[in-house]
Amino acid sequence: MKRNSYCGYVREDNIGKDIVVCGWVHSRRDHGGVIFIDLRDREGLLQIVFQPENKEVFKIAEGLRSEYVVSVKGLVRKRPEGTLNCNMRTGSIELVVSEVEILNTCSELPFEISDYREISEELRLKYRYLDLRRPNFQKNFIIRHKVANEIRNFLNDESFLEVETPFLTKSTPEGARDFLVPSRLHHGSFFALPQSPQLFKQILMVSGFDKYYQITRCFRDEDLRADRQLEFTQIDIEMSFVEEDDVMGVIERMLSRVFKNVLNIEIKMPFKRISHAEAMLCYGSDKPDTRFEMKIKDFSTELKECGFSVFSSVISNGGVIRGLCIPKGAFFSRSEIDRFANFVGEYGAKGLAWMKITEFGAESNIVKYFKNEEIKIIISKLEAKSGDLIVFLADEEKIVVQGLGALRLKMGKELGLIEKSKFNFLWVVDFPLMEWDKEEQRWQALHHPFTSPQQQDLASLNNENAGIAKAKAYDVVLNGIELGGGSIRIHRSDVQKRIFNILNISDESAKEKFGFLLDALTYGAPPHGGLALGFDRMCALMIGKDSIREVIAFPKTQKALDPLSNAPVPVSEKQLKELGVQIVVKQTEL
Fold it and tell me: How open is the CA angle 259-260-262, to the nearest 5 degrees?
């Protein structure tokens, strides 16, 4: 027998026809001498009927068990009246079997192949081949495939070229830790797996390829969490002779097409744009979730001379005062508000001031320190209503931003303010070019050292004013998740050298780390820019999952282990000797 249809593809058009389908026994039912099985393949379920009149076939059916692999041939017919199943795409028809062949049996399962059973992640990853059989899980990867296909079709239509870049490259320790690969032919030297194709895609622009893309694997040796993996997939895009609007326009059109063709969801364009400063002030995050309001407001000016000494002393020491209105939050008890204070304490905050708004005004143990006019300003600026709770943080700006930003998201989730069916896209723009590293006492690039400063900042850029310079950088954000980020690159070697000098990267160090790119910039490099999107993260958001492990076929655990293959594992002394590598056991391991 040769399969000529997927189970999930059979429809009423096939009634009266003989077909052959193959798959796994999803369930088996014996109804008064007639045996029914639901046969499953990646496209869905089909009800298969074994009738006792066909004794040889019926005997085989009696021995079928869950997850046996079978091939069946039979006649498609309409289901009898009253037996239709509206929950199945094939629920109006069934296949009456004339021939059956058991292709393989199945051992006792460690867990049911069911979408309705909760299974520990460790067990799921150990038996990933069974986990991947689950119908809803397979849908994740069908959607992932469709997304990749739409991206390729769109970029091909826009005259982009798909070009592969190396997996074995040079270590450039800027950012996350590199994975190192020892060279067998050059003992003591190492390749590195790429954290991204950043340097190579810029070189492709110098090479005149004009428009490049790649759906590529990237590698970072960093601690894991729900949205991180040691290896992940990135949509990498670069263009020549462009400015920010050009790049953002391409990304908007691409995402709009993907969501329309895969999910049938219309995405409004152009995406909203907000500055990095506004995002940090109003949302306490550079990747704000705008599916709900609850904006943070600054009161550093209005309350700098208030009678509450905690506030006034913070301002005199260069800090800030900001507030957040929690709608209908006045019902929270004192112990619950203390819980919020402990929560923001994790971000370094020393306390959380609060006021409950009632029909009679503001109530709390700190209200007495404020003038009536100050209370009115607070209520008006936060648009607070009776029954709301206002909370304040007063501290150095970084602590206030992180604390209130995290509390805003926590309250949005706990109070059910987030409309989960929404897809809110926005651009965060006008990022600072650099940030000061207190520990190392030097400037560091906020994105990467190849990001171009904005034109108005370029002429006067130096060590003294580096903190106020803005970058030609942009992040695309979806529902509070950074989907991707990019920038216009530096294409002139003299500008790149100035940036390296401010970043305290010597000529020798720059040559050692990035020499091949710096050389390329001296040979007629065009203006260029691009963006990289997290493909796994994008797919997870599209199917409503929090963890990217749900859209990666063979992910690692949070301990950076693969329970399926048991990787990583020690290797033989022979292999180590060939590589010129010696294992040194730490004292704590002895």
Answer: 65
Residue ranges in the chain modelled with pLDDT below 50: none
What are the distances in angstroms from CA 336 to CA 222, 267, 296, 347, 408?
A: 35, 39, 20, 18, 15
pTM of the predicted model, to two decimals? 0.91
* Rg, Å, the chain Cα set: 30
| Strand locations in 14-110 (E) | 18-31, 34-41, 44-50, 69-78, 93-104
What does the pLDDT read at residue 590? 52
What are the φ/ψ torsions at residue 509 (nearest 5 degrees)? Answer: -65, -40
Give residue for tokens 């958001």.
Answer: 541
pLDDT of residue 589: 54
SS3 162: strand
Instruction: Assess contact for 354 and 341: CB atoms under 8 A.
Output: no
Q: What torsion do the CA atoms of 193, 197, 198, 201 make, to the nearest 10 degrees?
A: 150
Q: How many CB atoms lie within 10 A of CB 13?
A: 9
Contacts of 232 (CB under 8 A, 6+ apart): 217, 218, 220, 534, 535, 536, 548, 552
Residue type, 233: T
Q: How far apart are CA 41 and CA 515, in angstroms?
A: 52
Burial 411-441 (b: 16+ CB within 10 A, else e): bbeeeebbeeeebbbbbbbbbbbbeeeeeee
Q: Is the dihedral of CA 393, 396, 397, 403 positive or negative?
A: negative
Burial (0-12, 13-18, 19+ Cβ within 10 Å), 574:
exposed
**Residue 323: in which H helix or E strand, if any?**
strand 320-326
The rounded percent of the chain whose pLDDT value lies above 70 is 98
Of 83, 86, 78, 80, the C-alpha closest to 10 is: 78
- What pLDDT score does 440 carry? 82
CB-based contacts of 276: which residues, under 8 Å, 6+ apart?
286, 428, 429, 430, 431, 432
Q: Given the structure tokens 């005199």, which residue do they identify?
A: 316
Task: Give residue 228's pLDDT.
Answer: 87
Rounded Cα–Cα distance for residues 441 and 439 (Å)? 6
Q: Which residues contact 582 (CB under 8 A, 6 or more apart)?
A: 576
User: Please, which residues have CB within 8 angstroms of residue 211's CB and are 6 or more apart in sequence?
Assistant: 155, 158, 159, 160, 161, 238, 239, 240
- The DSSP bridge pattern shows strands 361-363 and 272-275 to be unpaired
Domains and CATH numbers, the chain: 7-104 (2.40.50.140), 116-273+526-590 (3.30.930.10), 292-414 (3.30.1360.30), 432-470+492-525 (no CATH)
- 97: which 2 tokens? 């079997």
Token pair for 569? 């594992």
Structural contact between residues 356 and 362, judged by C-beta atoms closer than 8 angstroms: yes
Q: What separation in angstroms does the CA of 325 have from each of 39, 367, 372, 387, 408?
A: 54, 16, 18, 10, 9
How high is the pLDDT of residue 466?
A: 86
Contact predicate 425/266, CB 8 Å? no
